[in-house]
Amino acid sequence: MLSSLSSISAVQHTHTKAFFEALSKVFSPDNILSRGQQFSTLAKNSFPFLSRLMNCQNFLEAYSPSTWSHQTPPTPGFFAQQTPELLPSRPSAMGGKKSKQPEPPAFLDKPWREINWDEKQSDLQYVKNYKPHIKDRQLRILLHGPVGAGKSSFINSVKSVLKGRMCRVALVDNTSHDSFTKKYTTYKIEKENPSTFYPFVFNDIMGLDPSKGVLVDDIKLALKGHVKDNYVFNPEHKLSDGDQYYNPEVNPNDKVHVLACVVPADTSSQIEDEVIRKVLEIRKVARELGFPQVAIITRIDKACPEISQDLKNVYKSTYLKEKMEQFSAEVGIPMNCIFPVKNYSEEIDLNDDVDSLVLSPLRHIIDFGEDFMNHKMNQFEGYA
Ligand SMILES: Nc1nc2c(ncn2[C@@H]2O[C@H](COP(=O)(O)OP(=O)(O)OP(=O)(O)O)[C@@H](O)[C@H]2O)c(=O)[nH]1
Ligand SMILES: [Mg+2]
Question: What is the DSSP letter of 73?
Answer without folding.
Answer: P
